Olfactory receptor (Microcaecilia unicolor), 308 residues
Amino acid sequence: MERKNQSVPIFYMMGLPNRPELQPLFFTIFLVIYIAALMGNTVISTLIAINSRLHTPMYFFLINLSILDIFCTTAAIPKFLQVIQSKEKTISFHGCIAQMCLFSGVLSTETILLTVMAYDRYIAICHPLHYATIMSRKTCILLAVAVWVLGFSNSMVQTSLIPRLKFCQRNIIHHFFCEIPAVLKVACSDTYVNNIAIIIADVLLGMVCFLLTVVSYTYIISTILKLRSAEKKKKAFSTCASHITVVTLFYGGVIYTYVRPAFNNVLEADKVISAFYVIASPVLNPIIYSLRNKEVINALKKLLGINS
């Protein structure tokens, strides 16, 4: 009802310095990064889909991660490229809501997915004889569906609270895109309920998923250290190294941005951290999984050999 009594606000995106001479450079950099993220994640997904040796639970979840990375960059970068080229540098209220919904949905889903991937590695290393039974095709599909449903359900709850806020007619967002913490900072009304909702999501999704991931890797590392063969230890660690690296990169940025929404207000730091997990992480994930994974490298060589 409040929304009907006020004009629709306009958001001005001021994520980059107002230096017209640098706009072409920024546009080129972000465009190249976006294309690299799309190509990298598409290649990973294609390799897994066409190579029967990669039709395992670990790679099934990796396809889901690649899709999320594509959504992540697509939620933020195309609109930002448009903003760079625009003189007004605006985004509509409804466009901002849609961007927040998609982006927060991707973050929530990826948080849960990384936990499921850690559980998959736990079963594979700590209970190898029961791996095929526990991580059956049906189980993997059910887990994937649950991950997406829970992730985007949280996003719908978070973004549904935004329209209840009052905004001024001109709202300057010092960010690259409409992210919930950045939008809350320009609200003209009390954001207490929104901050409470973020904290609840942090606890139920962020903290629980993080603790479950830590517990999984505690058992994994303990099991690996008990192995007598150095070769088996190396092989076991290699199957987890990529996922550990991705988890570290992801949680580093997300915890900084979402766990402390009401405690400080460092705009430049926010932009740097957000740019890392929006731009760098989707580009790095395919590289991490391909460079540290012989099966993926072999599948890529096979694909290139067929096309050559």
User: Anything to note?
Assistant: The first strand starts at residue 10 and ends at 13. Residues 1-5 have pLDDT under 50 and may be disordered. The CA atoms of residues 87 and 248 lie 38 Å apart.
